[in-house]
Amino acid sequence: MLTKPRPIRLKGRSFLALSLAPELPFEDWLAGLDDLAARSAGFFLRRPVVLDVDGLDIDKAELRKLVDDLSQRNVRVMGIEGARPSLLGADMPPAMSDGRPASDFEPPTESEADEAQDAPAVETIAAAGPAPAQATASLVVTEPVRSGQSLFFPEGDVTIVGSVASGAEVVAGGSIHVYGTLRGRALAGTTGNGSARIFCRKLEAELIAIDGFYLTAEDMEPDLRGQAVQVWLENHGLKTGILG
Amino acid sequence: MGKVIVVTSGKGGVGKTTSSAALGAALAQNGEKVVVVDFDVGLRNLDLVMGAERRVVYDLVNVIQGEAKLTQALIRDKRVETLYLLPASQTRDKDNLTSEGVEKVIAALKKAFDWVICDSPAGIERGATLAMRHADVAIVVTNPEVSSVRDSDRIIGLLDSKTLKAENGERMEKHLLLTRYDPTRAERGDMLKVDDVLEILSIPLLGIIPESMDVLRASNLGAPVTLADEGSAPARAYFDAVRRLKGEALPVTVPGEKRGFFGKFFGRKAA
To answer: Is A146–B199 a contact, with Cβ atoms under 8 angstroms apart?
Structure first.
């Protein structure tokens, strides 16, 4: 019984989380939080919350109590940022790092709180909506990408004027253009962008992937080798075509 | 102020030490003051290739740790009086090389010599990164085969990121020295072609050294090939490489191919 298993897709995804930075003493800070929550019952519901404890002089028991106190208030902490490894036990939310700042969440105002009491199911997220349309970010690299180098650009397209060496890796949120030989790996659309494409002047790649679907050198059609090729995603599969 | 050259490759056994000694001896024969520094602490070989193994008293690690003066550790070659060797330690390990210590030694050598040639150990660890750190020019030694070429590519990436020049936003001057080139195997297609290597690495070609018994014979004699047998094919290739290193525009010929005709095609440098 040989059924072709569906390959497991490895994808990155980013979420906007609410970052809470508690201050000492926790009693006062929690009182302030209660005050905020009283004005908007649903503010923390269904919202991912990350606890930022960077620079706080606390021990493991105090941190655990804080997480419990928050959970009693229906604030579910999905991760803890800036904590020493010794502060985190297996039963605690996992450590998070490399967070990037995003726009502030608007705390609920009095008037919104009134409305919220009338219709508590209404979402009060305003600032967390999609950012206004802006040009897609792009990165232009005018040097060859050498073996062992990893070029990571989740923000958008990557254009390389030169070759990508065997053992090198280009990871882009958008499309990847290689004006040279692609010998290493190219992973486009890694943030879930299925319309991303890969273009190269000469295909000798070890691996190509778009939005988690990938092909290794062995899976590629042999007559594509050495050709100018584009790769795109269609019906959950990678399509390749020789560029004219 | 002298020029600091690192001879590096990533992969082992491609001919870094042989080339360091041969280039050093060739430069010194032109009357310039040259020191070849062995950075392969723990696995030193340069002393053997240069025939100085029985004269080593102090080494690079002794100098870095303040146990000996630089002048005590330097060994003057018996055949060419402007050629010196700074041996590596065989008993210590690479952790004894400190960044500050290496910096001090290189700065002192630069003042006293026209050329400081750093023979890098294989790999990309401490010894290799410290050997390249203070270099002005890099010579990347590569064999015409895929594993060597990929390792060299990795090293070029490090030269462009982990050296002082790179950190100061300057460009490191890099040259490719293709060694152990075998014309008969090239003809059979068993080796990467010169053009393929140049296309992958895209750095200028300094020279092509043919695979030759002369190199092995010279090593066993304890003499750089450019001293042991000046008229041999590899020695002539090293002498030509030195002229190019000094800025002369000398066309590169591929061993085993007729000069006049192919000179037209191969007499140029890669981008």
So the answer is: no
